[in-house]
Amino acid sequence: MQNARLSAALERIASTRPLIHHMTNLVVASVTANLTLAMGGLPIMASAKEEVEEIASKSSVLLLNIGTPTSEQLEAMKLAGFMAKELKVPIVFDPVGAGASRFRTKAANDLVRELQPSVIRSNLAEALSLLEEDARILGVESLEDDEEAAKRAAMELATRFGCVAAITGRVDIVSDGKDVGRTTGGSPLLKSITGSGCMATTAVACFLANEAPIKAAALGLSLIKTASELTLEVKGPGSFQVALLDAVYRLRGGL
Amino acid sequence: MQNARLSAALERIASTRPLIHHMTNLVVASVTANLTLAMGGLPIMASAKEEVEEIASKSSVLLLNIGTPTSEQLEAMKLAGFMAKELKVPIVFDPVGAGASRFRTKAANDLVRELQPSVIRSNLAEALSLLEEDARILGVESLEDDEEAAKRAAMELATRFGCVAAITGRVDIVSDGKDVGRTTGGSPLLKSITGSGCMATTAVACFLANEAPIKAAALGLSLIKTASELTLEVKGPGSFQVALLDAVYRLRGGL
Amino acid sequence: MQNARLSAALERIASTRPLIHHMTNLVVASVTANLTLAMGGLPIMASAKEEVEEIASKSSVLLLNIGTPTSEQLEAMKLAGFMAKELKVPIVFDPVGAGASRFRTKAANDLVRELQPSVIRSNLAEALSLLEEDARILGVESLEDDEEAAKRAAMELATRFGCVAAITGRVDIVSDGKDVGRTTGGSPLLKSITGSGCMATTAVACFLANEAPIKAAALGLSLIKTASELTLEVKGPGSFQVALLDAVYRLRGGL
Fold first, then answer.
1. What is the mean pLDDT of residues C120-143?
2. Confidence label for A253 from pLDDT (cuts 50, 70 and 90)
3. What's the rounded Cα separation, in Å, for the pair C188 and C204?
4. Which chain C residues touch B27 with a CB distance below 8 Å?
C-alpha cells in the first residue's frame, strides 16, 4: 500500500531527525520549513556566505532553490554546494523559473553543471530550459502539461547530468536515465497555491536523508500528491495549504 | 450586482493568465503570490537587478512595494520601472511605510516622480507623506481614519502625479483627480492581519492586466472588502487570513 | 487566574498600541508581524541600515532575531541597537541557531555583549552557546530538554549579561539572575511548527512595551503556552499555526 510505504519512510525520518539545509526563496521559506518539521526532519534556512559551508557540512541534505535569486545568494550556493559535494552530502536542486530570465537560466545551468545534484526537481518548462530546448514559460509557472515531453525531458536530464530527474505536473515523472516512473492523482488545488513545487522539492530532500535518490524522488512526489488527496474540509487555496501540512503530519502517524 | 462584476473581471484574469511581476517586501511575498494565483494570475517574485528588466518586459503589470526596502532593491525597482514605463507595462505602486523614516519617504517620493505609476495604493498616512503633508504615522499602520481627508488626498495625489489614487481605510477611496468613489463595508479583521493593504495592491495589479486604471483600482479594493465579508468560520486573524484567500477563489467561481 | 492576567496585560498593549521594531529572519517575518497585530501592537519590519536608527528611535521595543543572518543585517542590528540603548528603548534578543555555525555563535555573542538586551529568549542549546558551553545543537532546534540545565543556564545568562533570560522548552524557564520561575504545559505541536520560539520572542517584546523585563518575559512565554492549549479543531501543524493566532486574539478579548 502506497500510504504504508510513505508512513514507513516518514518514520525513518522521524527517528533519524536529519538536518535539511535549505537555501531557498523568500516566498516559500516558511512553508518548506514547516513541511520539513511535519515530515519529522529539522530545517535550517541559511544563506550567508560566512556560514553556509559549515552548515552544509553538518547537514544530511543540501537543498538549493533559485526562486528569488541574487548574485550573492548564488555565490553562497556554490560555496555550500562544493562543500556538500566534497563531503558527499547529497544535493537536491530546484531551478525555479529557469527560462524566465537569462540570469536565472544561466544560474540554473551553472549550478547543475558544477554541483552535480543527486536529484533535480522541476516543472517541464524548467527542465526544458536546463536542456536548452525551447520552452513556453511564463513566470515561474509551467504552462505545458505534456506527459510524453516530460518523460523525454526527465530521461535526457538524468542522462546528461548523471542524476535523478523529477518533473511534476498533472502526471509526475521520475527517471534515473534508464527507467521512467509516473504518478497520477493529486488535488487540482496544487496548481492554485504558491510553492507546491518547492514543497515537493523539500519532500524529496527529506527522504534523501535515508533513501537512494530514485526512491527519495518517487517518495517525495508521491507524498505531496497523496497528502493533497487527504486534505479535509477544503474551501479554497487558503484552507488547502493548511490542510496539506496537516495531512503530511497525519501520514507520518502524528495526531 | 457587485459580486457578478467581480466574478466577470476575475474570469477575464483566469482566461488571460497575466504575469504579475512583484517586487515586494518579505513579509507579504507569500500571501500576495497566493492571492495572485487565487485570482487566476501568475505571480513572479523577482528583485535581482540582473533580471528585473527582462522580467518586467515580459509581464502584464509591474507591482512595486517598499515594505522592507534596501537600497539595492530600490535601485532594482528603478531599473524594472524604467523598462516598464518604456514598454507601457502599467505600474502599481505601494509606498508602504512612507512617513515612517526619511529613507522610505524619500524612496517613495523618488519612485512616484520618476516612474509615474498608473495606480498608487496606500493608506491615508502614506498618501499624506507623498504629498509632503504632516501625517500621524506609527510604523506601517495609518492611525488616521478620516474620510474627508482621504478624499482630498486621493484627488490631490491623482492630480499631482497623473495617476489613479486608491486609499484604503474603514472607507476606501478611489480617485482619478476628477471624480472620487467610495466603498464601505469589509470585515474589521482586515486591520488585524499584516498585509491586507498589500493584498489590495496585488488585487489592483491583477485587474490592471485587463482593465483601465480607475476600474482596476475600484475592482481591487472592492475584491478585498467583498471577500472579507464572505469569510466563513472565522475565529480570529489566523483563520481570517485563510478564509480570505478561499473567498477570493470562490468569487472567481472555483470550488 | 492566569488567563485574566494575560488578558489584562494584552489590554494594556491594545490601549497603547506600541510600535515593535522587528529585525528578524525571513522565515518568521509574516507570522510574527501577525502575532504582534493579534496582541494589539503595531509591527514594523525594517532592516536597511539607512533607516533602522530612525525607526528604532520611534519604537517602544526593538527585537533582534538572527535566524537568517547576513553580515549586512548584523551591521544594521548594531546601528539600531546602539540607538535603542542610547534612548533606553528596551531590546529583546533571540540568538536563533547560535551554536549551529561559528558565524552565528560569534554574531550572537557580539550582539549580547555590545547591546545589553533587556531580555534574551532562546532554547537551551542557544543559551549554552552564549555561555560558551558545549551544546548538542542540530540546526536551529535544540535537542536538549533538561530542566535543571535550563535553570542553571538561565541564572548564569541573566547574571553574566545583566538581563532577564527566558529559555523555552518542554518547561519554560525565566530568570533575572536571582530567582528562577518555571512554566509547564503547552501543546506538543509547538515543536512541530517553525517559529514557535520566535513567536515567544515577539510576545515578550510586545509585553515589554508596558511591563518590566521579568514580568514581560513571564507573560510572553505564558501567552504562547496558554494560547497553544486553547487552540480549537486542530488536525496537525497547519491548522495549529492558524489556531494559535486565533487563540491569542481571543485571549485579548477580540471576537
1. 78
2. confident
3. 21
4. 29-30, 33, 45
Task: Give the right CATH number for B2-247 from 3.30.10.20, 3.40.1190.20, 3.40.1110.10, 3.40.50.2000.
Answer: 3.40.1190.20
Of residues B144 and A236, the one with the higher pLDDT is A236
Half-sphere exposure at residue C64, Cβ-oriented, CA atoms within 13 angstroms? 35
Residue indicated by cell numbers 529572519: C25
Residues, chain A: 255
Which of A37, A46, A254 shows the shortest C-beta gap to C68?
A46
Mean pLDDT over each residue of chain C, to the nearest integer: 94
Distance CA A201, CA A120 (A): 8
Return phi, psi of residue A50, to 5°: -70, -20
Query: In this predicted model, what pLDDT tens digit does every residue of C137-149 receive, in sequence order?
Result: 555 555 567 899 9
Q: d(Cα B127, Cα A30) in Å, to the nearest integer?
A: 32
Choose the closest CB to A245 out of C97, C102, C236.
C236
Subunit partners of chain A (3 or more CB pairs within 8 A): B, C
Strand order in the sheet with A91-94: A42-45, A19-23, A61-65, A91-94, A119-122, A164-167, A172-175, A180-183
pLDDT-derived band at B144 (thresholds 50, 70, 90) equals low
By Cβ distance, the residue of A70, A139, A194 closest to B19 is: A139
When scoring A47, A96, A194, A196 by the number of chain B Cβ atoms within 10 A, the one with the most, hence best to mutate, is: A194
Q: Test A102 with B249 for CB contact under 8 angstroms.
A: no
B125's grid cell: 498616512
Among the partner residues A68, A101, A192, nearest to B38 by beta-carbon distance: A192
List the chains bordering chain C where 3 or more Cβ pairs fall under 8 Å. Answer: A, B
CATH H-level superfamily of A2-246: Ribokinase (3.40.1190.20)
CA–CA gap between residue A220 and residue A205 (Å, rounded): 8
Q: Which of B235, B244, B245 to mutate to test the interface with C (most CBs of C within 10 A)?
A: B235
pLDDT tens digits, one per residue of A148-169: 999 999 999 999 999 999 999 9
- Model pLDDT, residue B25: 96
Shortest alpha-carbon distance between residue C28 and chain B (Å):
8
Domain map (residue ranges) of chain A: 2-246
CATH match of C2-250 with 3.40.50.300:
no
Distance CA C121, CA C191 (A): 16
Q: Is the pTM of this model over 0.90?
A: yes
pLDDT level of residue C23 (50, 70, 90 thresholds): very high
